[in-house]
């Protein structure tokens, strides 16, 4: 049970007994804070921080400012001036709160995004009501990820109440635009060196509370355009149809590219398992006349399309080199070109993110794993996300590789109608986070 053992004739208290006491106190403390945790989550849901366009960001920062200041945190509200998405109409406000302990030590940073995606159709509850029913709190962002944010705040507050003599610092940030790339949120903070004084990062995204998410696959977006020559649609032989050229690209994809991508597998424990291969999604495809506007009443005119465009979303594995990923698409297009007369194309890169995966041996992984074992009585599951989240900026710009996503909530509920967070889920996950703080911020008192 115990890594460091204890000799029977030592007059030191048994470390297990000590940890047991801290764990019990934390659990009792969190149970006392159940109503507060519910109220906090509801209050966060009731601020409709929809992205796009990115609204009420300042309001949610001010709310968090009040809450965290009252708990002894020093706060900073930071507008991401000049960052992608920031305008006077839609200012991108972030908050970073920090509390230093009585002694020096490591800094544990909890990062949550405050933005939520559009509501969509199919709701039977008020998406911004924070309704409580059957042990769940409903609302847009309940699980992704205001529940996680609330749980991390209450975890930190419970830790502070139970362990007055601690070493290091706790930071809690609320950042914007994760749902649209995070450039005015975590990326901005990382560029401004906010992670320089941080040793451990926990992102309470909804990954199921006994799972540790180590990272994510890579992404590369690009646009392929094929060209032709416009002519009258009654005499297509006088022109050259760009859509038929694109059809040849699609054919090549079906015949060769998709099987080749599927044959690539990874050691990354990506969930769901289907994402343990390389994948490519055709995000959009367009050729010829634009789609008619709603106010257009006539029939289309007869033209041979001289352009067709396809946007691709390629997700790749840690074993793949980003340059090879691009070269593979170029090679495919060159193959079509060599087989087809008059085939001309352009390939335009849009944006990309390299894959990242924190090592299982990293301290933050180890401490959350131990806390999960204590709270749930079972081993954690290590997973990797098929899509990216803000860890990309912390790893790439912040150069910090001791970062995970861990938090309450069911991954599959994210972005769905009637999204909810389980209250017990939040409490248990808060216990895990608080136990991890005990280990990381009280030198020599590591729970086993
Ligand atoms: Zn999220």
TrEMBL record:
<dbReference type="InterPro" id="IPR036264">
    <property type="entry name" value="Bact_exopeptidase_dim_dom"/>
</dbReference>
<keyword id="KW-0378">Hydrolase</keyword>
<dbReference type="GO" id="GO:0009014">
    <property type="term" value="F:succinyl-diaminopimelate desuccinylase activity"/>
</dbReference>
<comment type="similarity">
    <text>Belongs to the peptidase M20A family.</text>
</comment>
<dbReference type="Pfam" id="PF01546">
    <property type="entry name" value="Peptidase_M20"/>
</dbReference>
<dbReference type="InterPro" id="IPR050072">
    <property type="entry name" value="Peptidase_M20A"/>
</dbReference>
<keyword id="KW-0862">Zinc</keyword>
<dbReference type="Pfam" id="PF07687">
    <property type="entry name" value="M20_dimer"/>
</dbReference>
<feature type="domain" description="Peptidase M20 dimerisation">
    <location>
        <begin position="215"/>
        <end position="338"/>
    </location>
</feature>
<dbReference type="InterPro" id="IPR011650">
    <property type="entry name" value="Peptidase_M20_dimer"/>
</dbReference>
<keyword id="KW-0479">Metal-binding</keyword>
<dbReference type="InterPro" id="IPR010182">
    <property type="entry name" value="ArgE/DapE"/>
</dbReference>
<protein>
    <submittedName>
        <fullName>Succinyl-diaminopimelate desuccinylase</fullName>
        <ecNumber>3.5.1.18</ecNumber>
    </submittedName>
</protein>
<dbReference type="InterPro" id="IPR002933">
    <property type="entry name" value="Peptidase_M20"/>
</dbReference>
<keyword id="KW-0170">Cobalt</keyword>
<dbReference type="GO" id="GO:0046872">
    <property type="term" value="F:metal ion binding"/>
</dbReference>
């Amino acid at each position: 049970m115990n890594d460091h053992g204890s000799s029977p004739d030592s007059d030191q208290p048994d470390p297990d007994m000590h940890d047991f006491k801290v764990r019990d106190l934390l659990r009792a403390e969190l149970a006392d804070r159940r109503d507060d945790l519910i109220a906090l989550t509801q209050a966060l849901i009731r601020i409709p921080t929809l992205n796009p366009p990115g609204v009420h960001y300042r309001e949610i920062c001010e709310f968090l400012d009040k809450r965290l200041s009252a708990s002894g945190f020093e706060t900073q509200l930071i507008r991401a001036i000049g960052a992608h998405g920031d305008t006077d109409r839609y200012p991108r406000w972030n908050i970073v709160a920090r509390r230093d302990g009585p002694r020096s030590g490591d800094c544990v940073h909890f990062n949550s995004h405050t933005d939520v995606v559009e509501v969509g159709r199919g709701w039977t509850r008020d998406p911004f009501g924070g309704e409580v029913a059957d042990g769940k709190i409903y609302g847009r962002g309940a699980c992704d990820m205001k529940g996680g944010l609330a749980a991390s705040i209450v975890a930190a507050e419970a830790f502070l109440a139970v362990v007055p003599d601690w070493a290091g610092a706790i930071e809690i940030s609320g950042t914007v635009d994760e749902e649209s790339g995070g450039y005015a949120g975590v990326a901005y903070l990382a560029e401004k060196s906010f992670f320089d004084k941080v040793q451990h990062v926990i992102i309470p995204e909804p990954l199921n509370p006994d799972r540790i998410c180590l990272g994510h696959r890579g992404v590369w977006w690009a646009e392929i355009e094929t060209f032709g020559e416009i002519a009258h649609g009654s005499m297509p032989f006088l022109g050259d149809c760009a859509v038929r050229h694109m059809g040849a690209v699609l054919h090549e994809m079906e015949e060769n590219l998709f099987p080749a991508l599927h044959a690539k597998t990874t050691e990354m424990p990506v969930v769901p398992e289907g994402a343990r291969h390389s994948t490519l999604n055709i995000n959009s495809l367009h050729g010829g006349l634009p789609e008619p506007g709603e106010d257009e009443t006539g029939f289309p005119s007869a033209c041979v399309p001289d352009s067709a465009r396809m946007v691709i979303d390629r997700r790749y594995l840690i074993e793949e080199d980003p340059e090879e990923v691009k070269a593979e698409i170029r090679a495919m297009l060159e193959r079509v070109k060599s087989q087809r007369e008059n085939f001309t194309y352009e390939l335009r890169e849009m944006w990309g993110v390299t894959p990242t995966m924190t090592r299982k041996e990293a301290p933050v992984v180890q401490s959350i794993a131990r806390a999960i074992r204590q709270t749930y009585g079972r081993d954690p599951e290590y997973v990797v996300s098929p899509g990216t989240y803000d860890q990309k900026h912390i790893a790439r710009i912040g150069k910090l590789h001791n970062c995970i996503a861990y938090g309450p909530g069911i991954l599959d509920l994210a972005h769905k109608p009637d999204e909810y967070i389980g209250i017990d889920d939040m409490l248990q996950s808060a216990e895990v986070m608080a136990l991890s703080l005990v280990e990381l911020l009280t030198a020599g008192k590591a729970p086993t």
